[in-house]
Predict the structure.
Amino acid sequence: MKILLVSPSTRPKWKTPAALMIPQLGLHILEGLTPPEHEVKIVEEEVQDINIDEPCDLVGISCMTANAPRAYHLADEFRQRGRKVVLGGVHPSILPDEAGRHADAVAVGEAEGVWNEVLADASAGALRPRYHRPDPELEKYIPV
């Protein structure tokens, strides 16, 4: 499966010099957790353009509240092109129903604990609307 992991920008036309960019570590952790039979590409929109027509089977988009509108726009565009989209990050964790209107699945909380389930379900063509592995410390802050 080809997987595209995206960190959207709040201002997609403005690029941060690569040397000044702090990467989204969560996306790199997911890449490291992905079994080798899958191909992963990470796009940080702050430093590079996103190709909406990128050939891929699954798109994972991580966002915070500041870039949620852009994440939702990208998710909608990818879905219009037949791509399956998983939204995760702080904003979708806090507002999973809102995020779910723009995605095939939402990872609530830390995606690391559910990533293998997401990949297995996506490979089988059976993504569930929500993935969540409760963390007792975070649970009190995340609506389920």
Summary: Helices lie at 25-33, 68-80, 90-94, 96-100, 115-123, 136-139. Residues 2-139 form a domain with the Rossmann fold fold (CATH 3.40.50.280). The longest strand covers residues 2-7. The longest helix spans residues 68-80.
